[in-house]
C-alpha cells in the first residue's frame, strides 16, 4: 500500500454572523492525515453496460451493502452485493404502460431508502418505485402536484414519515426574489410543504451572480454554480464551488461557517467561475454550451465519511487542454487535484494531494463515492471494458 501525508495543518475559522457583521474566531488542534491507497474494487459488467457511463452509489439497508447505478442504455437500476461484487438484482423499468418511468428530458437520478422506497427524479416526473419497478407513486408538474420541478435528489436527501428532504434551486430567480436551496416534499399532498436555506447565506455576491445568469440565459443557455450538501434532516453541511468555507446547519438554522480549503492555493472568484464556461451562439438560433479548455481552481464533489465525522472536498487546481479521439474541440484534463479533509469534531481541515496519475478525476464531478472501506475513485487506466474498477483511498490519522 502507498501513503500520502497531509502537507499542511490548517486552522479552522468560525464566522458567527450577526447584524454587526462577521466576528472570526480561530481554533487550533488540526489533525495530520495520511491517505492510504488500497487495493482496487472491481465490479464485472454485462454486455449491456458501458463502463464509462456509470455514476456509482453506495447504499446499505436491511443488513446488506450495495453498489448501484442507473444504466441508461437498458433503462435499469443495477444492484451489486458490494462485498462479493456479484449482481444481486436488476430493476428493469418500463418505458411505456402503467409502470412506465419516463425521462422526457433524458435525465434520471435516483435514491434508495430500501427496496420499497426507490425514488426517481426525471425532472418532469417524480416517482417512487419498488425493486420490481412497479410505480407506487407518480407526481407530475403538469397536474396539481409536483409543483416545483427545480428540486433534485442529493446526498443529503432523507425519507421519513411520508416526507423527503431534497435539494432545489431556481436557475435564474426573479430579481429581488429569495432562492431557497432545500425543500421538504410531502407524498400525501404531493406538494412542497417547506422551503429553507436562503442562497444568500452561502453566496455573498448573490445578486451579481443572478444578474450574470440572467444575461447568460439571453443566449439560450445557462451553467449555474454548484452548491452541494451532505448530511441529513438534522444536520447539513454545505459548500459552494468557489468558496473555501463549509456551512453547518442544524434544524435548518446556520450554526457556523468554517474554513475548509488549501491555504497555499486560492479558488477562483465569481468572474472566474463564469469564464470557465464557453457559450457560443450560431446563426439560426443554435447554442453550444461547454467548458473552456483551461479551468480555474474550484471545488467539485462534496462527500461525507461513513461514520459521519469527516467531510471531504475534491479541489481541482490544475487543468490542461487536450484533444481526445472523437472530440472536435479541446477539453480540460485535470493535472492537479487535492482532497480537503474537514474534521467535524475539531472543526479543522487539512489538504492531501490526490494521485491524479492513477485516478479518473473530472473537472466537473467524478464517479466518486464513500463506503466503510474509504473513498472510491474510478481508475484512469482501464484494462478491460467489461468491468468497472475503483481505487480505494482511506483517510487515516497519522500514526494510527
Notable features of this structure?
400 residues; mainly beta; five-stranded antiparallel beta sheet; four-stranded antiparallel beta sheet; 29 strands; 4% helix; 48% strand
Please give a structural write-up.
It is a single chain. Strands 1-4-29-28-27 form a five-stranded antiparallel beta sheet, with no helix packed on it. It has a domain at 1-30 and 222-366. It is mainly β and 400 residues long. It is built from two helices and 29 strands. The longest helix has 12 residues, at 206-217. A hairpin with a 4-residue loop joins strand 7 and strand 8.
Poorly predicted runs of 5 or more residues:
7-28
> Can you list the strand order of the major beta sheet?
1-4-29-28-27
Number of strands: 29
Q: What's the alpha carbon Rg, rounded to whole Å?
A: 21 Å
What is the number of helical segments per DSSP (H or I, 4+ residues)? 2
- Proportion of strand residues: over 45%
Largest sheet: 5 strands, antiparallel
Oligomer: single chain
What is the mean predicted local confidence, pLDDT? Answer: 88
Distance between the termini: 15 Å
Q: Per the principal axes of the C-alpha atoms, what is the gross shape? A: globular
Helix content: under 10%
What would you call the structural class? Answer: mainly beta
Amino acid at each position: 500500500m502507498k501513503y500520502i501525508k497531509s502537507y499542511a495543518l490548517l486552522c479552522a475559522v468560525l464566522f458567527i454572523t450577526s447584524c454587526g457583521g462577521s466576528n472570526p474566531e480561530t481554533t487550533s488542534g488540526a489533525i495530520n492525515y495520511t491517505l492510504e491507497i488500497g487495493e482496487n474494487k472491481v465490479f464485472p459488467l454485462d454486455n449491456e453496460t458501458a463502463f464509462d457511463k456509470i455514476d456509482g452509489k453506495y447504499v446499505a439497508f436491511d443488513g446488506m451493502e450495495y453498489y448501484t447505478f442507473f444504466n441508461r442504455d437498458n433503462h435499469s437500476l443495477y444492484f451489486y452485493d458490494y462485498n462479493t461484487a456479484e449482481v444481486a438484482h436488476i430493476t428493469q423499468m418500463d418505458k411505456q404502460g402503467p409502470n412506465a418511468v419516463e425521462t422526457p428530458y433524458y435525465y434520471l437520478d435516483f435514491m434508495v431508502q430500501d427496496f420499497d422506497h426507490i425514488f426517481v427524479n426525471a425532472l418532469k416526473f417524480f416517482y417512487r418505485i419498488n425493486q420490481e419497478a412497479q410505480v407506487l407513486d407518480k407526481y407530475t408538474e403538469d397536474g396539481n402536484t409536483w409543483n416545483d420541478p427545480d428540486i433534485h435528489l442529493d446526498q443529503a436527501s432523507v425519507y421519513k414519515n411520508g416526507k423527503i428532504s431534497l435539494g432545489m434551486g431556481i436557475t435564474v430567480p426573479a430579481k429581488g426574489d429569495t432562492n431557497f436551496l432545500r425543500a421538504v416534499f410531502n407524498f400525501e399532498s404531493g406538494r412542497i410543504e417547506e422551503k429553507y436555506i436562503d442562497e444568500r447565506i452561502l453566496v455573498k455576491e448573490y445578486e451579481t451572480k443572478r444578474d450574470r445568469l440572467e444575461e447568460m440565459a439571453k443566449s439560450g443557455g445557462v451553467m449555474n454554480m454548484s452548491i452541494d450538501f451532505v448530511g441529513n434532516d438534522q444536520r447539513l453541511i454545505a459548500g459552494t464551488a468557489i468558496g473555501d468555507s463549509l456551512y453547518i446547519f442544524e434544524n435548518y438554522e446556520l450554526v457556523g461557517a468554517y474554513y475548509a480549503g488549501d491555504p497555499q492555493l486560492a479558488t477562483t472568484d465569481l468572474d472566474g467561475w463564469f469564464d470557465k464556461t464557453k457559450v457560443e451562439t450560431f446563426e439560426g438560433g443554435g447554442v453550444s454550451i461547454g467548458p473552456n479548455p483551461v479551468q480555474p481552481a474550484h471545488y467539485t464533489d462534496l462527500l461525507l465519511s461513513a461514520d459521519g465525522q469527516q467531510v471531504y472536498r475534491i479541489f481541482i487546481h490544475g487543468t490542461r487542454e487536450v484533444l481526445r479521439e472523437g472530440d472536435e474541440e479541446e477539453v480540460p484534463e485535470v493535472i492537479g487535484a487535492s482532497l480537503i479533509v474537514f474534521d467535524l469534531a475539531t472543526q479543522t481541515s487539512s489538504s492531501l494531494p490526490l494521485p491524479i496519475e492513477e485516478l479518473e478525476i473530472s473537472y466537473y464531478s467524478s464517479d466518486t463515492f464513500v463506503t466503510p472501506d474509504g473513498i472510491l475513485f474510478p481508475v484512469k487506466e482501464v484494462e478491460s471494458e467489461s468491468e468497472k474498477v475503483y481505487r480505494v483511498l482511506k483517510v487515516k490519522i497519522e500514526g494510527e
